[in-house]
Amino acid sequence: MSAHLSNGRVNLNILREAARKELREFLDKCAGSKAIVWDEYLTGPFGLIAQYSLLKEHEVEKMFTLKGGRLPAADVKNIIFFVRPRLELMDIIAENISEKNGRPPQMHSPRDFHILFVPRRSMLCEQRLKEQGVLGSFINIDEYILDLIPYDGDLLSMESEGAFRECYLESDQTSLYHTAKGLMTLQALYGTIPQIFGKGECARHVANMMLRMKREFAGSQTQILPVFDSLLLLDRNIDLLTPLATQLTYEGLIDEVYGITNGYAKLPPEKFAAQKKQGEVGKDLPTEPKKMQLNSAEELYAEIRDKNFNAIGAALSKKAKIISAAFEERHNAKTVGEIKQFVSQLPHMQAARSSLANHTSIAELIKDITTSEAFFDNLTVEQEFMTGVDTDKVNTYIEDSIAQKDPLIKILRLVCMQSVCNNGLKQKILDYYKREILQTYGYEHMLTLNNLEKTGLLKPQTSTRNNYPTIRKTLKLWMEDANEQNPNDISYVYSGYAPLSIRLTQVLARPGWRSIEEVLKMLPGPHFEERQQLPAGLHKKRQQGENRTTLVFFLGGVTYAEVAALRFLSQMEDGGTEYIIATTKLINGTSWIKSLMDRPEAP
Amino acid sequence: MAFITANWNPLGEAFYRKIELYEMGWSLRDGLKECLVAAAPYGGPIALLRQPQRPSSSARPQLEIYSSSGANMASFPWKSGPVRQLGWTVCDDLLCIQEDGTVLIYDLFGAFKRHFSMGNEVVQNQVLEAKVFHSPYGTGVAIVTGASRFTLATNIDDLKLRRLPEVPGLQGAPSCWVVLTQDRQTKVLLANGVDLYILDNTSCTPVTPPGLSPQACSIVNMAVSFSYKYLALFTDSGHLWMGSANLKDKLSEVDTKVRTPPKQMVWCRRPKSQQPSVVIMWDRLLLVAGECTDTIQYTLDEESVCVAELDGVRIIGGSRHELLQEVPSACQDIFKIASMAPGALLLEAHKEYEKSSQKADEYLREIKEQSVLGEAVRQCVEAAGYEHEPETQKTLLRAASFGKCFLSNYPPEPFVSMCRDLKVLNSVREYTVGIPLTHTQYKQMTVQVLIDRLVYRKLYPLAIEICRYLKTPEYQGVSRVLKHWACCKVQQKEEPDESIAHAVSVKLGEAAGISYSEIAARAYECGRTELAIKLLEFEPRSGEQVPLLLKMKRSQLALSKAIESGDTDLVYTVVTYLKNEMNRGDFFMTLRNQPVALSLYRQFCKHQEQDTLKDLFNQDDDHQELGNFYVKASYKEKKLEARLSLLQSAVDEYNKAKNEFAAKATEEEKKLLRFQRRLDEEKGEALLGLSLQETLHALLTSNFHKQAEQLYRDFRVPDKRYWWLKLTALAEKDDWEEMEKFAKSKKSPIGYLVCCLYNLYTMLFIQLAT
After folding, report:
1. Residue B750 has pLDDT above 50, yes or no
2. Measured between CA atoms, how close is A87 to chain B, in angstroms?
3. Residue, of B472 and A470, whose pLDDT is higher
4. Of A191, B55, B267, B464, which residue is 20 to 30 A from B440 by alpha carbon distance?
5. Is the pLDDT of residue A103 over 80?
């Protein structure tokens, strides 16, 4: 179930186990049968920690979704609310359990109520429950500290959708506080991280909180040999460009096209129906989307997910040959021993074959899209922007797309991209785009446009100087000869564009940020380096040729393509650094822009 | 070493020994006569309530608190009502249960802490008898009233009174009763004559102990063991029945031949006891009875009290304090006369070795031949733990250490930790400290609790020394002790704030994990706000400072500390507090100086209090946000007029914000809405709420070309987009004539048109084909 978490450089299963242990302890605190009432938002993240079976083992018999009105009937001793600390949720809970709410007396044996706040309990919420007159009804009020959730062997996510919006639009630093707390938990399990680097306002804030918390907990720290050599905190707003671009890795494209939520993708079922039952094709096509878990537990997927999509065909056909060759082996098996060995490998081979079939289907689905003209045109424009072609004019493709009323998010992605690549748009051009958007998609989107301007994704050009070309040249963000099949540089993940965030990471490892001071000054927010004192005797003695381990934390989200690029760097033979990636949320341009949109409810 | 066994008495297979712990330091004129006595287990303190010599209305009883060695810790005249029972809590607090059901709680030094009542009905009926008991839930109190009703409180720190059901036929107090904890439930077992009942929350069940001798007419005393596993009953026929507390098994029955009801009866067991045994006390006689018919009898020369312990019974008298216990098997093996146990041989070998006699070698050889040297060492180490005299401990440990030399891979931990434990134990058994803990008790109660006990006794230096010696992690050990010290220090009223704050900071210094806020809270409780604030400044965890600062009404400071901590929930909490405390103007001003708090409060308002949000923007003259606010509000409004007026407000605000674009766009929006309404009313269309583009499209497909033209001009729609739109619309409804007209009316967007037409034709073609 979780073996893939322990395969990486750092055993992230420790973190998962710690989280599971805490969950079990809480459940056991409420003796007897239980029903859980879920804040719907939490079910996804919890799925990464514990399956239903774990809950069942601890006498969880029923599960409900938190909603207004009366609680559904359940003949259990305990009702546990799993909720985020939000006031509106408190009101719902109060409504749920209030005596006034017509709960038929004597219908149930008396039930015990409990609340589990995720990730932290909140005085504000408890106050609200008190005001509602229900605080006393709770036997246990506890918190379940779930900040960083192990997502894959080298990937941690806080699964906090609104983090970017909160930090950069609403100046609400709650998620940064949770980040700092999460990093403290991580250090409690994996040792103090001796070096902290960072770039950006939020990064600075998180680092400050971490240093403060370390002082606060002085003396209670555990004596663990540090697993991480350094931590790099990166604000998303130093690199607004990357998430806007269409990801071109296999995993990235699945995310772009179908979306990956909490490690699962929902795919159109048609392609997967045929292989199931060969006899009755087409009889009953499943209408439910096929839900697939995508992580490194699946051997084939781990192998191909980070490849550029153009290299997927070759990889799949190579794999197909290997698998059929393996099946052919049976003809060579002569002795009983050989046959036995073959049979013992069968389950593994069959799993590989079905995995291959699945991914071939997915690849076909995606190929239909990537070979379409629309996709090609869109990509061409993106690449023009990234290379700095005509970014200071109204772009005809965008104009036409608006006229044809293409999806608004697509338009916003492109306009923002043009703005970012041009260090802002001329007022006239900006107003033109805005007007076109308002007239076509409705005036209510003015608020969304306003949000995009506040976060700097869209902006009027203030100075005449556009420093994007300088940044592009210094950091080599555009590589003409990107090799998609056998990449030699991270730029393969966007077929030419090397993500700025990852370039910064790469330069930090070698030769160091001092070489790019000029560029760093052009990006928003301070850059810094901090050292944390290690207790005597815990200094790591590095073996000759042993790689360093760096934790890169993206505040405000990271894309799968960026993750792929970091994995590529980890695997480089002379890289010298292996990366573990952490983020507030895995994002793509669409989900990111969506999180910034304001949709006032229509009358 | 014959003298070690001198005080051993055999009882069946086992031996019992009575050792003197202390010669009591108190000087009581009449011993324990006429005294209400309570002594806490685990070598805890002793409380005496002495009735006045001549009962007169003016003389008051005297309450005295002593350590186990008889050192006075407190003494004061009792001014409250008549006391029925004294008892100690697990935290070394004294409970005084009065006749009227009030329970008063005092600390070790006689300072009053708080009181609670055992229920209203008790005031009338009075408490006849009361018992203090300990369970995993804490310290509890049980009483029986004049109306023969029992009331229980399982944990006095979380007081929940439970009135137990009536006992049939019971008048006045039962002949005897005990409190039991079984299956996580607290019950009362009581005897009324020869009838036994178990009382729990809901029922009163009669029970019969299996095999109780038939001569008995009445059960006159009963005792439950320390672990609540065993029960002893004493009958008026002089029989002692022993069995399990669930009354399922009988262990033995002994005829003591004494028919007078005993003064006290307690179990005398130890973990891994060889036999069950009970100590029974009469005025002049102490008797130990076990499985066999024999008993051990001691004469008592003074009034005494028995205290049940985990591994024996302490007997406290006017002049002496003794421990009576079964001799542990390790000690028996080693010291029993003519014992050939490995430990005994090793001890002998070591003795010879010290005399430089070659016999040492002989003994050693013998042990080694049986290859029991490891066992011998283990026995000596274990026995050392059971011995009270440091000299005997040392002899045994030396022997063990000697034996260890001849073993190659004997694990050192047991030996080392025993040496450490004994050093700690000897230091607390010291007369001046007066905690006569045995090793078994010590292991059961843990170092943490021992440190707590020392702290309650204000023996801070010793506690710190022990923590350092045992290398207890700082925040569990030294820091905790220092915190208690500081909490005590801030209560010294005569010292000025400055010097106390200084003394505290110097002593606590950089000690890890000190919670200054707890100390400050204590200072505040004592009414020393200034001192509390001074102390809070030392608190490194800004989050911890906030609740107390709020309590002390230092809300501004609380706000900046909350912000410093980065914990947004804390900031919210303070902000909500400020909101209720201050008038609106001041509140807004305060927020204005704290941007972090301000933006959080805005978030709060956005979800909870829209109107306040507007006020906030107004105060800051944030016209842009006000504009957005009105726009947002307009979408929630159902009536068009209201919506338009909100939009007009937005336009005004945008103008003030010098956001020309937004102002113009909003004007356009208004225009569009009005246009849509007009058309909806006139032509029965449903345009309201559509975007401009959608409106145009709808108009074109419904043949309102003129109106579409008008919109196109009024809103200055770019030609290209309009043509595209028109062509699509016309093509959709196959209106080729209109399309021709349109194509001719315009100058020459031909290149574009051709392209469009081409697309459309192909579209059409496909449509036809299918």
Report:
1. no
2. 9
3. A470
4. B464
5. no
Question: How close does chain A come to B542, measured CA to CA in Å?
Answer: 9
Average pLDDT over residues B95-102: 93
Mean per-residue pLDDT over chain B, rounded: 87
Residue B642's nearest CA partner among A448, A603, A450 is A603
Partners of B631 on chain A (C-beta within 8 Å) are 444, 446-447, 600
Amino acid symbol at B189: L
For the residues B29-41, what does the mean pLDDT come to?
87
Ordered DSSP codes for B631-699: HHHHHH--SHHHHHHHHHHHHHHHHHTT-HHHHHHHHHHHHHHHHHHHHHHHH----TT--HHHHHHHH
- All residues of chain B having their beta carbon less than 8 Å from the beta carbon of residue A127 are 573, 576
pLDDT tens-digit map of B55-81: 666 678 889 999 999 999 999 999 888
Which residues lie closer than 8 Å to A516 by C-beta, 6 or more apart? A474, A475, A504, A507
Contact B689 A123 (CB under 8 A): no
| Min Cα–Cα distance to chain B from A375, Å | 19
Q: Which amino acid type is present at position A486? A: N
- The alpha carbon of residue A400 is apart from the nearest alpha carbon of chain B, in Å, by 8
Q: Which of B474, B541, B691 sits opposite A439 (nearest CB)?
A: B691
Exposed/middle/buried for residue A81 (C-beta within 10 Å: 0-12, 13-18, 19+) = buried
Question: What whole-number distance in Å separates Cα of residue A415 and Cα of residue A398?
Answer: 8
**Each residue of A366-381: pLDDT tens digit?**
999 999 999 999 999 9
The residues pairing with A62 across neighbouring beta strands, listed in sequence order, are: A35
**pLDDT tens digits, residue range A420-454?**
999 999 999 999 999 999 999 999 899 999 999 99
Burial bucket for residue A295 (CB in 10 Å: 0-12, 13-18, 19+): buried
Give the separation between CA A342 and CA B126, rounded to whole angstroms.
86
Residues of A in contact with B725 (CB under 8 A): 403
Residue at token pair 């399309």 = B739
Band the pLDDT of A279: cuts 50, 70, 90. very low
Least CB–CB distance from B566: residue in A209, A436, A598: A209
- Mind giving me the DSSP string for A146-207? --SEEEETTEEE---TTHHIIIIIS---HHHHHHHHHHHHHHHHH---SEEEEESHHHHHHH
pLDDT tens digits for range A385-396: 999 888 889 999
Which residues have a Cβ under 8 Å from the Cβ of A492 and sit 6 or more positions away? A308, A482, A483, A484, A568
Contact B670, B637 (CB under 8 A): no
With beta carbons less than 8 A apart as the criterion, state whether A91 and A132 touch: yes
Ramachandran quadrant class, A466 (left: phi over 0; alpha: psi -120 to 50; beta: rest):
beta
Chain A residues close to B565, C-beta within 8 Å: 212
Alpha-carbon distance of B249 to B272, in angstroms, equals 18
Q: What's the confidence (pLDDT) of residue B472? A: 83
Interface predicted TM-score (ipTM): 0.86
Q: Distance between CA atoms of B119 and B96, rounded to whole angstroms?
A: 15
Confidence of residue B417 (pLDDT cuts 50, 70, 90): very high
Q: What residues form DSSP beta bridges with B417?
A: none
Q: How far is CA A140 from the centre of its chain?
A: 32
Tell me the average pLDDT across B739-746: 64
